[in-house]
Amino acid sequence: xxxxxxxxxxxxxxxxxxxxxxxxxxASARTVRRVSGKPVTITLSGWTSSPVEAQLLTxxxxxxxxxxxxxHVLYRPISGSGSTYETVLRTRFVAGNAPDVIxxxxxxxxxxxxxxHDLIPLNSYIKSSHFTIGDFYKSSLSLFEQxxxxxxxxxxxxxxxLFYNTTMFxxxxxxxxxxxWAQLVTDAKLLTNPSKHIYGLINSVQEPRWAQFLxxxxxxxxxxxxxxxxxxxxxSVRGYTYFVDLYKRxxxxxxxxxxxxxGGQAFGMGNAAMVLxxxxxxxxxKQTYPGIHYNTAVLPKGPVSNVSLTFPVAYGIxxxxxxxxxxxxxxxxxxxxxxxxxxxxxxxxxxxRRSLVGLPYFKHHTYIHGLLxxxxxxxAWTFPPGFVQFSSTTMLxxxxxxxxxxxxxxxxxKNMQSGGEAILKSR
Amino acid sequence: xxxxMSLPAMxxxxxxxxxxxxxxxxxxxxxxxxxxxxxxxxxxNFGFIFTSPLFWTAVFNTASFALVVVPTQTLVALGIAVLLxxxxxxxxxxxxxxxxxxxxxxxVISIIFMWxxxxxxxxxxxxxxxxxxxxxxxxxxxxxxxxxMMMNIWTTSGYFMVVFxxxxxxxPQEIHDAAWVDGAGSWYRFTRITVPLLKPTTFFVxxxxxxxxxxxxxxxxxxxxxTGGPLNSTTTLVLLIYQxxxxxxxxxxxxxxxxxxxxxxxxxxxxxxKWLGKPIEY
Lengths: 427, 282
Known about the structure:
The complex is a heterodimer of chains A (427) and B (282). Helix content of chain A is 44%, strand content 12%. With 427 residues, chain A is an alpha/beta fold. In chain A, helix 1 packs parallel to helix 3. Mean pLDDT of chain A is 88; it is low at 1-35. Chain B has helices at residues 2-27, 44-50, 53-84, 91-103, 106-116, 122-129, 144-169, 173-181, 186-197, 199-214, 218-223, 237-247, 251-276; strands spanning 30-31, 39-40. In chain B, strand 1 and strand 2 form a beta hairpin. Chain B is globular, with a radius of gyration of 22 Å. The A-B interface holds A 7-8, 11-12, 15-16, 83-84, 87, 90-91, 93-94, 109, 112-113, 116, 118, 254, 256-259, 388-389, 392-393, 396-397, 400-401 and B 33-36, 107, 110-111, 114, 118-121, 136, 138-139, 218, 221-222, 225-232, 243, 246-249.
């Protein structure tokens, strides 16, 4: 699971824990024995969206040790969000002691890790173990594919969907969540009450929170072949302008306006009537804001579609692994039909296998329905290597200027377009 | 024998301080992402850095940070030290209270200040009582760096206060007594005796302040979540170095900024040395 918005706090925690973790993980002696049949030890590292995820994964791995008593798995989570995690991982790659199995993120450095062959292709393992790769959503699998080679098996995902506060909706006399862009504006207007610090929609303005508006208008950040940026196409301009206007009209705002650090927190605090988020918000609300009444719905439809972004996370094997065969056994155990069913029943994320969408667990939890319904209408994409600074800083800054009215939406898009094109050319 | 005794310290110094410093100079001539092969690129990293607006933003931020923080913290520290050098009640407690931030973790302090600076935090609450609408300190590019400046002054003044206290106690009492007998008032004695005789201490405080502020990283990193935001307003030179090397995988750019920062710091230190570093003549 990814928590893309929760970065500010996660990074603080990460910084405090960083030195400790680096020390701890490098000290974890890996007694690797190559002779088959003899016990081997493999390390698994990922970030954790919450302590719950670490607990649940530890439990799942304990089951693996029973099936494969000769493979000892050391689970060494790296605290912090996806990007902090990748920073730590990078240093581990340099030192040549990356963990055997890692979480591969849906953005950030994943394309770099694949391009640099820091991950090994899994095709031969998939073939020899008759792993049912055809069951996976193409959109999530393709994120971890390069040149016909598969570098990661998507373990779970979550699309962005609309979370709405049912109490506020009832009070405002709104019966259904908005289904069109126009309705979203009308509803948000009704729900906004700045004197009480309540806004229709609260989301921070980084690219993974607005790119879907471009797609819903028929545009996109880049063309599918990723050879050029399409930010200034008429459709993209239309989608982006709609997004920016929500903020300029005062019916949407950024989390800090209400003293929150991310949209999900603002929603939990009761300052946001709606927030665009993924499934990771559900356990957070349950733990931190159990009093909030809410539900989920598919995104409101734009001029072309109601397509959303989805964020799959994969397991990959690093080039430093001395036991890729054992590592594959672990990945296969965690992500095969039964493995993913177990993981789904723990309630942290949505499946990347099409066959698991109908699990009884999902039927019994109504707040997941909106997310599940969004799943078939969602796309996964990431920048090619070399765009971390562009996506994390340039796009955020330009959009901040746009929503504050210091720059027109078109100007912001033009600046992003030229910045992105310049990086593409220099590569 | 002397060399043998200092050898362990020299080895540590070379391995963990001098060695990496020299390596940074070396890296500034290469293009490297940490994960690929190094490639010699001559001076082009410096060319990129000097034409990069982000670098100049970081220079501006770091320079304004140093220019505000160093004089303010020096004056505040001196003021508190002079006050606490008197026979005040609860002097020990007050000294401890002012020194406390210096021994606290800056990560913890930053997190506490993030709550204080929250839109609905302690500071805006206090301002609200006075009828002043407080800004959104950390989300507003105009205020974010200033908020960090205030926090930094609060954190470091206590440490420099202790340094000044030591300096104050090294000033011979008979000079004060002689001046008092000659009829010098307390302000006159402060400006004509205390301040000049504190010059070696002030020199130390100024140098340490300059070096500390030019290397400010942790507070900006934590408060901006590592981004240097909002709108690059808290991007300092060292944060930029971190971002280039570890976040963006452009080690050469980061190393080039490191070299430039070294030259800046060296120049400023030499300048301060020329101004304040002369021996005192009684």
